[in-house]
Amino acid sequence: MVILQLQILFQFQYLQKYIQDDEFLQDLDDLDNGNFQNINYYYQFFFQIQESDLQIEEQESDSEDEQNNLQHFEKKQAIEEFKEIYHKINAKPISNLLNDSEFKKHIIKIEEFNKLDNTVPITVQDEEYHTIIKSNEYAAIIEREIQAVHKFTKDMFQKRFGELESIVLNPIDYVKCVKLIQNKQDLNKIDFNGILTNLQITTVTVAGSSQDGKPLSSQDLKQILAACDNVIELYEYSKKIQSYIESRMKWIAPNLSALVGSGCASRLITAAGGVEQLQRMPACNIQVMGSQKKSLLGMSKEGQGFNRGYFGQLDFVQKAPPQFQTRLVRMLSTNVAKAIRIDYLKTCLSGSAGNRLKEIMLQRFSKIQEPPPPKLNKPLKKPDDKPSRKRGGEKYRKMKQKLGLTDFRALRYRMKFGDEAEEEFRGSGKGFGMIGMGQVKINVNPNLLKKPDIGTKTENYFNKDTGFKTVVEQKQEKNILVFKKPI
Questions:
Q1: What CATH number should be reported for the domain whose range is 250-293+310-371?
Q2: What is the pLDDT of residues 327-342, one digit of tens each?
Q3: At residue 460, does pLDDT exceed 60?
Q4: Most Cβ neighbours (<10 Å): which of 53, 116, 431, 458?
């Protein structure tokens, strides 16, 4: 069938030059044998040329020339048929999980266990325990499938409304919006209430009216709507599995359920892929589990706060003061890591360890919230207290010497008894005191007055008063002075 459609296209005059390539003819033989590796390339190659040529022919066609109109109609119909065949050949299964028979059997088994009222602890040997473990695995697979189909839908819907993926980040909300929009041009008439917030609705309508998107073909629209249905169906299965795991949490992880509740515990275990995987995670990774990226749409980040993931949905976290919520989430993640390891080792099946961890955590948190003690008033010093002692040292001594009272200033402050102070300095009222009246002691370096020692190796000695003298003469003078007898 594919070769037949290609041969119809090749009969047209404007495509004859592309048939001369031997490699191209070899690819046609591969298509005839069922090898469709290069069909993507030829699909893009042909229709970029053909659709532009058909638009030119529509403008230049003469309504009176019936033969040309018939040829133009045959060309257009052949292209549409080839497009439809291409989509059938190139179409890939959107979600393989929905066609998996094992997955459908597992869903039926979950529904059967939900009907039973289990009051006995679940052990490793029980069939339901393995069903719960398998449910955790399927929950992780469903999450990956939703992300994959969501990406496929975004890529297909890009040419129609490319800005929608940056406005609506949640995959479920995105596919619901796509199902409402489809090929509609006026987005103001679409009711997005219940899916988007008021701010998102305004942004979507404004962006949709300002952007120039191309309408989708019927085949592309069918694929997109089928992908949207798959995402919604996978999401419903995910909620069913999570509800089942939540109902069995008191037997799987009793301490974790006592700490954060069965709902949050099931979401943590489902996101991690099981109890064993969760107990391997550090507290810093547990803290950010469930965090979702939010689109601010150009608004301020001031009111967004800290993204607290699954822990932000707990009642005692929401009731805590905003300035202490981040600290409480950190304490929770640390205690969750302890509780899940206790559950994994099966050391406390009653859940009392989880209750004890929660009690200690809340007591510590209440202590953190208490205001600090008031600042005590410092008592005043006694009036007759001695001045505080300054520390000594070379630096402090130099400072005292620099700022100390000099002898010159001390004379200025003195007055001679009985005399009147007459002298003033330029009418300032400050006199000179006893400056210039008292005796001043001159400190002379004694080393300057010390006589030099007489050398013993030289015979001559120089004296500024008597000139040169010999050592013998000087000795004789000393003897005369010492031993001279009075007359």
A1: 1.10.246.90
A2: 999 999 999 999 999 9
A3: no
A4: 431
pLDDT in tens, 232-278: 999 999 999 888 888 888 888 899 999 998 888 888 988 887 888 89
Under DSSP, the state recorded for 193 is: B
Alpha-helical segments (H) within 61-217: 66-90, 101-115, 127-157, 164-167, 171-181, 198-210
Q: Could you count the other beta carbons within 10 Å of the beta carbon of residue 309?
A: 20
Which residue reads 């069995």 in tokens?
A: 248
Residue intervals in the chain for CATH 1.10.246.90: 250-293+310-371
Range with top average pLDDT, 78-82, 243-247, 343-347, 456-460: 343-347
CA distances in angstroms from 345 to 254, 338, 381, 422, listed in the order given = 12, 11, 64, 104
Residues of CATH 1.10.287.4070 domain(s) within the chain? 101-247
CATH class of 101-247: mainly alpha
Q: Do the strands 460-463 and 467-470 form a parallel or antiparallel pair, or are they unpaired?
A: antiparallel
Encoded tokens for 398: 């130099």
Give the whole-angstrom CA distance, residue 278 versus residue 336. 10
Q: pTM, whole model, 2 decimals?
A: 0.52
Place of tokens 């001045």: 387
- Side-chain half-sphere of 68: how many Cα atoms within 13 Å? 10
